[in-house]
Design a protein that fits this description.
Largest sheet: 6 strands, mixed
Shape: rod-shaped
Strand order of the largest sheet: 2-8-4-5-7-6
Mean pLDDT: 88
Number of helices: 4
Low-confidence stretches: none
Helix content: 25-40%
Distance between the termini: 85 Å
Strand content: 15-25%
Length: about 160
């Protein structure tokens, strides 16, 4: 009796483990520092349990640390000022203050607006409070006057998250 040797095709080597591919996807959708740090700890655990290779661990560390830096320092975006009106921006969301003629903020009780500008504003409901040595003027205006000013000038308004 003769033995016959059967040649099976060799399996192609898997380039990356499934755990590695999953961790890459998790870092892509990560949106806060706490979860990013958790994923970095998971990378260490996966390597200790020999679920990923050393090369994959170093790659995931690099991806995770880069993501953590990006989350800690969000890219600031600047809004284009195209014409008269109110331009809201939120610094906590990484938005920069638009280049406007007037900066506005609402008073504590919400009945007046405080404006900071180099312009000379006059009219009903507009009160000049202070002129700084550099020429910047501080005004208090009523809501009605603010609505009229929005039609004439570009106004930046800081909208903070509560």
């Amino acid at each position: 009796m003769m033995a016959q040797i059967i040649q099976f095709p060799a399996r192609p080597a898997q380039e990356n483990t499934t755990a590695f591919l999953n961790m890459v996807e998790l870092f892509k959708v990560c949106e806060d520092l706490k979860s990013c740090n958790f994923y970095l700890e998971a990378v260490e655990k996966l390597h200790n349990d020999e679920k990923i290779t050393e090369k994959e661990m170093y790659t995931l560390r690099r991806i995770g640390r880069t993501k953590r830096i990006d989350l800690a320092h969000p890219k600031r975006t600047k809004q284009d000022v195209t014409g008269a009106g109110e331009y809201l921006y939120t610094p906590e969301m990484g938005q920069q203050k638009p280049d406007c003629q007037i900066e506005a903020s609402l008073s504590y009780y919400g009945s007046y607006y405080h404006l900071k500008t180099a312009l000379d504003l006059k009219g009903r409901g507009i009160t000049l409070n202070e002129v700084k040595p550099d020429g910047v003027k501080w005004y208090t205006v009523t809501k009605r006057a603010y609505e009229l000013l929005k039609n004439q000038y570009t106004i930046s308004y800081k909208s903070l998250l509560d």
